[in-house]
């Protein structure tokens, strides 16, 4: 009886080692189909401009042969900061334009430089 248990355990251990070795050599099975080349699995809003919080909210899927998460997270933070800076500059410029008010309207003059009819001194007098 003891030899039967040793044989069964030996078969299970050898089978487990073969399965583990095959899994490591052949790679892991993919749980999702490969992404289309023209479509990213990461979604960004189409109905409004992308904001810094949109970029910070991105999460890129990780695989065994994937990317270094710390590098991509750093890159996303830099991108988010750049977008925030740009948005602040745009807001400041819009505020300056709003404070300046509408541009003064200039009166159109004929090409020869004479004042328009009814305006200014006449040379005939």
From TrEMBL:
Top-level lineage group: Bacteria
InterPro entries named among the record's database cross-references: DivIVA_domain
Stretches with biased composition (Basic and acidic residues): 36-50
Gene3D superfamilies in the cross-refs: 6.10.250.660
Region (Disordered), start-end ranges: 28-50, 98-125
Record-given protein name: DivIVA domain-containing protein
